[in-house]
Amino acid sequence: MKKALLSAACLGTTTVFAQVKDTLQTKNVDEVVMTASRKKENIKEVPSSITVVGEKQIQSQLTVNSDITSILQYTVPSLGTNSGQTSNTGQTLRGRQVLVLIDGIPQSTPLRNGARDLRTIDPSAIERIEVIKGASSIYGNGADGGIINYITKRNKTDKKISGISQIGFTGQPYGGTLGVRASQLLTGKIKKFDYTLSLAYERTGYTKDGDGVLISPTYSIAKMDNYNGLLKIGYDINENQRIEASYIGYSSRSDLNVGLKTGKYGITPTIGEGIGKGLETTPQGTPKNHNIRVSYDNKNLFAGTSLNINLYYQDFKTVYGYSDTFFNGGQSNVISKKAGARFNLDTQLWNSANSQGEIIYGADILNDETVQKLEDGRFWTPNMNMTNIAPFVLAKIDLFKKLTIKGGLRYENIKVNVDDFNTLSTLKSDGTFTKSIPVAGGKLSYNALVGNIGVRYNIEPYINLFGSFSQAYSINELGRILRTSTSETIKNLETKPIIVNNYELGATGQLSSWLNYELTSYVSTSKLGASFVQSPDRALMIQRSPEIVYGVEGFLHFTPTKWIQFGGSYSWMEGITSIKDDGDYSAKINNSRISAPKVLAYVQARPIPTLSIGLDMLHSFQQNRFEPNAKTGLFAYGEGYVPEYTVFNFKSSYEVSNNWRLSLGIENLFNKVYQPAISWWTARDSDFTNALGLRGTFMIEYKF
């Protein structure tokens, strides 16, 4: 096997498997460079499971659907299925919340999780996606289930200018559904300077189900303008030093004006019908997501030591639709600003023929200011200002080019300033409104030492064993806890952090030149987890209790000949909790976090050198883990029965010449009428909606 370069996690317990799909479109696919963390290293040196979604995969999936949440559900085994909406609620990773990054810049808002962090960039700007599965403290707060890091495109040539121009059209076999997208990529190098410029625009049409009926306008992706821009400039000071600056901007706004006709859970879907009430003052979507980053690398700061410094800033706002659940109605938003710095030193301790040793050390500094308000200015959560300073150290030893041992420690020092506020008056199930109460803010402090250790033993090419222990530390959903306060001071609220312990054991290998595999099992525990549950008046609240999540996942990939390949993956998980913290774990974590077992399968063929065709399948199994209320016959939120469903997507491309390529993709190939999992497990009439019906995408691409 050719050498594969990967970068390990900051704490060094995360292993990598580079996806091999779409190998018919590229050579040397096992050479993958990862920069999701602190250090580049060989795939055989990392001791747990990572999924890498490569550029060819992204482009292939983009032919079918440009929604990044859809691309992820078809490429990451243990990630929940998407909702088909602007919200990624329920799309957890291994049953826990995920931290989303763009080039290492945090996009998630864990202080008040608005579930809009996955859709913060256009896939045309992404070179690859690194998915670190399992609890991780690599980038601090919010990575209970892992990390999804979008790595943006960069210059790869010595040409002064090269690029890719794309224009595409989307549509369904129903009126009003036509959409258009266009993107332009320019890269080049001039002496010591290199640059990357990426621009993308998409206008979506109406979205309809398999029967041609308008899908619910709530969190709808219909009639939306999406904009994305990337500018990256690098300068090689000398052979050892480089400085790079980048700006990434994303915006999405919907002008959909469709009324809502509420259906009946499990019977009649909620649909879009007629004209909206025109009560929204701000278009739904994410009107701004600005990311600025400056990095400096020195490969030889002093004897055997390299240095990396990253400075970043993010300015994010997302806006939700009008709701009459607030007193006098209104639209809510989540606003978050982050500024941070990462300092990373890497010192080689020794390097002999049969062993090497190194130590990686440094510190992360992050300031996160998050608030949720209504567009009219009323506060739903108070202003929360978090400062996190975290020094870390990692030791790594490689022995006999077969055995890798890693261990790391990170000290989390978090302080949160919470402003005084008044709780917002909201609608209860009996038709009355809660009483607004004043809540005194204050300062919250959290400190913890988290660590990890991992071992990988490469016995033979056909069997490599790995095992690891890693921890995550987060104060996820502090805002939701505060906004439902019934106390007049935050000192009386349960705001303790979530510490997750993740244990993983797996095997991977190459059984022959045409067959490779991976099988992984994991268990993650937390003494004080956090889940959405339904109160007696059917309002959502946070339940804090001990939790255990466990599961298995695996894949097989076959490449019997040069012109065809196929394979698939399977993932299964379960979650249990001790509600009274008495050692009784008979209660289950609900389906808002524990997704149904999922099978992904694909076949990709190139019958002639210029033509590529493929078929993807997603099968979500049924979930029947809870019983409805004996008196009312209703399921509680998150506990609804989820039936199984299977969806097929078709994708193809034809290379007209070295410069021109045509692509055609068809989503939901057989125009199946079904509901996504979230429609069922929420167990609410308003959320019971159909999924998107058959939709085609035609794209024209020009390379120069």
Automatic annotation (TrEMBL):
<dbReference type="Pfam" id="PF07715">
    <property type="entry name" value="Plug"/>
</dbReference>
<protein>
    <submittedName>
        <fullName>TonB-dependent receptor</fullName>
    </submittedName>
</protein>
<keyword id="KW-1134">Transmembrane beta strand</keyword>
<comment type="similarity">
    <text>Belongs to the TonB-dependent receptor family.</text>
</comment>
<dbReference type="InterPro" id="IPR037066">
    <property type="entry name" value="Plug_dom_sf"/>
</dbReference>
<keyword id="KW-0998">Cell outer membrane</keyword>
<dbReference type="GO" id="GO:0015344">
    <property type="term" value="F:siderophore uptake transmembrane transporter activity"/>
</dbReference>
<dbReference type="GO" id="GO:0009279">
    <property type="term" value="C:cell outer membrane"/>
</dbReference>
<dbReference type="Pfam" id="PF00593">
    <property type="entry name" value="TonB_dep_Rec_b-barrel"/>
</dbReference>
<keyword id="KW-0675">Receptor</keyword>
<feature type="domain" description="TonB-dependent receptor-like beta-barrel">
    <location>
        <begin position="237"/>
        <end position="669"/>
    </location>
</feature>
<dbReference type="InterPro" id="IPR039426">
    <property type="entry name" value="TonB-dep_rcpt-like"/>
</dbReference>
<keyword id="KW-0732">Signal</keyword>
<keyword id="KW-0813">Transport</keyword>
<keyword id="KW-0812">Transmembrane</keyword>
<dbReference type="InterPro" id="IPR036942">
    <property type="entry name" value="Beta-barrel_TonB_sf"/>
</dbReference>
<dbReference type="GO" id="GO:0044718">
    <property type="term" value="P:siderophore transmembrane transport"/>
</dbReference>
<dbReference type="InterPro" id="IPR012910">
    <property type="entry name" value="Plug_dom"/>
</dbReference>
<feature type="signal peptide">
    <location>
        <begin position="1"/>
        <end position="18"/>
    </location>
</feature>
<keyword id="KW-0798">TonB box</keyword>
<keyword id="KW-0472">Membrane</keyword>
<dbReference type="InterPro" id="IPR000531">
    <property type="entry name" value="Beta-barrel_TonB"/>
</dbReference>
<feature type="domain" description="TonB-dependent receptor plug">
    <location>
        <begin position="43"/>
        <end position="147"/>
    </location>
</feature>
